[in-house]
């Protein structure tokens, strides 16, 4: 379930949040019945709260008695300081990569056990990609995701290892093999995937490292990657462009 708030003592706010959190990439449109099931709330409660959320612009009525996330939530969401600040700093570097490689460019951060795509620039090549700005995908099956997972806390890695869905025949779903890959990512400084998220799409990604002004240890704050039809050619050119951009972004974020 998207949220279990049917227990005694649940507040109106927690119930409203459960309704909003019921929406995800696989469920962008939901009926009242589906909302009640995914939020684990009684139908009368859902009906009353949905009316308030629609009136406030947090939800919008769609066709066929369905509901979607409202535009007002988007207006509020873009005020989040981490993604928007990162986007502002990274934007010129992303454009440089795009101009150099003509590939699909991704800027991403880790959101729990998922990779959150902060920005996406589409490439000219016809490469299938399921990502879009604001979407979340599994960490273990994407280039930017593997970079972020390699530098994530141990408890996050263990949580991901416990659930490794196979998305294509080439997705790595063996925990030990993935551990070895992540160790290699930390050693070599970049990650690659070959048709692990989508057939016909390969990726290469690098970490964006920021250093605090007070001298604290550098931390990986985001990942930068490109999606291409194949890594057999132009691999070095793509990697060099990513590394140069990542260093520039990291210095700007200091």
UniProtKB/TrEMBL annotation:
One of its GO terms (molecular function) is DNA binding. Residues 72-254 form the IclR-ED domain. Pfam families: HTH_IclR, IclR_C. GO terms for biological process: negative regulation of DNA-templated transcription. Residues 10-71 form the HTH iclR-type domain. The keyword DNA-binding applies. Keywords: DNA-binding, Transcription, Transcription regulation. PANTHER family: HELIX-TURN-HELIX TRANSCRIPTIONAL REGULATOR, ICLR FAMILY, HTH-TYPE TRANSCRIPTIONAL REPRESSOR ALLR. This is IclR family transcriptional regulator. The lineage of its organism: Bacteria, Bacillati, Actinomycetota, Actinomycetes, Micromonosporales.
């Amino acid at each position: 379930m998207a949220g279990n708030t049917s227990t005694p003592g649940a507040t109106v706010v927690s119930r409203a949040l459960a309704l909003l959190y019921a929406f995800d990439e696989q469920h962008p449109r939901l009926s009242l019945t589906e909302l009640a099931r995914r939020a684990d709330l009684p139908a009368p409660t859902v009906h009353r709260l949905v009316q308030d959320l629609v009136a406030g612009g947090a939800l919008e009525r769609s066709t066929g008695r369905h509901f979607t996330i409202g535009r007002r939530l988007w207006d509020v969401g873009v005020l989040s300081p981490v993604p928007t600040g990162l986007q502002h700093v990274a934007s010129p570097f992303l454009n440089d990569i795009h101009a150099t490689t003509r590939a699909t460019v991704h800027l991403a951060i880790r959101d729990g056990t998922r990779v959150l795509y902060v920005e996406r620039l589409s490439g000219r090549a016809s490469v299938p990609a399921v990502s879009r700005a604001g979407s979340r995908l599994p960490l273990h099956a994407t280039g930017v995701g593997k970079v972020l997972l390699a530098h994530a806390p141990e408890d996050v890695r263990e949580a991901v290892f416990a659930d490794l869905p196979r998305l294509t025949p080439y997705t790595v779903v063996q925990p030990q093999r993935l551990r070895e890959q992540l160790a290699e990512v930390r050693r070599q400084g970049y990650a690659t995937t070959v048709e692990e998220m989508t057939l016909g799409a390969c990726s290469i990604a690098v970490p964006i490292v920021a250093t605090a002004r007070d001298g604290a240890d550098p931390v990986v704050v985001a990942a930068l990657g490109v999606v291409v039809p194949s890594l057999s050619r132009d691999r070095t050119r793509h990697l060099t462009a990513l590394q140069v951009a990542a260093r520039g972004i990291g210095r700007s974020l200091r």
